[in-house]
Hints:
With 277 residues, the protein is α+β, with helices and mostly antiparallel strands. The chain has 2 domains: 3-162, S-adenosyl-l-methionine hydroxide adenosyltransferase, N-terminal (Rossmann fold), CATH 3.40.50.10790; 172-276, Bacterial fluorinating enzyme like (Elongation Factor Tu (Ef-tu), domain 3, Beta Barrel), CATH 2.40.30.90. The chain is built from 5 helices and 15 strands. Helix 1 (22-33) runs parallel beside helix 4. The protein is elongated, with a radius of gyration of 21 Å. The mean pLDDT is 92.
Amino acid sequence: MSQSSIRPVVAFMTDFGLGDGDVGVMKGVALGITPEAQIVDITHDVAPQNVSSGAWILAASYRYFPKGTVFVCVVDPGVGSTRRPIAVRAGDWIFVGPDNGLFDRVLAEQTFHEAVTLANPAYRLQQVSSTFHGRDIFAPAGAHLAGGVALAELGERLELADLVHIDPSLAARQGERIEAEVLHIDNFGNIITNIPLSLVPDLFSSHAIQLGFPALNQAVAERRRFFADVPGGDGQEARPFIYGDSSGYVGIAIRNGNAARTLHVSYGEKIIGTINA
C-alpha cells in the first residue's frame, strides 16, 4: 500500500463514559471533516476528571499506534475556564486536548517538536459551547490534523515551558525502602503503582518484599509472576499478591477478585515498600 493511500488514524480517549452520546458526536464531527479517517478508541472510562490517571493510560497506550496517529484526549475538569486548548507534536505522534498536564507522561518519554494553542476559528465548529470542547474544538482540530493540515495553522506556537505540567512522579527507592503511590486502578480492580519494574529488579528474588498502605493499616507481601500461578477454587481464600504489570509497573491484584475494593484502596493512596534480604 502506498503512503498516500494509508488512511489517517484518530484515536480518542476521554472520561465521558458511553452512557450518553458525547463520544459518538465527537466521532461524527471528526468524520464529517476527514471522512477517510480511521477512528479508534483507547478508552472512555478514564476515572472522571482524573488527569493523572488519564496521563498514565495515554502513556501506556500511544506507542502501539502507527506513526502519525492523532490522539484526541479529553479529561478536562477545567473546561470553560482560562485553560488553553492545545495540540502537541511529540515523537512520531500528535496529541490534542486541554493544557492541563494530560500529555506530561508522553512528553517525559518523547522528543518535543512543537505545540500550538487551538485559536484559529477555521479549525473548530462555528458555535463553541463552554462545556463541550471535545465536540467543538478538540475533535475538529484532530480531524483537520489527520487530514493533513499543518500544526502551525491551528494557532500560536507554544514552547514546552509554556505548557501546564503536573508531576508525573515515579516511586523513590533508597536502599531497602520505597516510597510510592497508587497510579491507576483498572477495570478488574487491579492496583497499578508508580513503581517501575526497573526500580525493583529484585522483585522476584529470594528477598522478602512488602508493599504497605500506612493509612489503611494494610500490607501485601505475596508475589506471583502471573495470575494462573495463584491458588484458586472453592473454599480457598482470595489473597492479594504483588505482580509485574504489562504496563511496566508493579501491580497488586487478587485472582478472580477486586484488589482495590478488598483493600479499600483509591487513587493516590500512599505506599511504603520494604525489601529485606
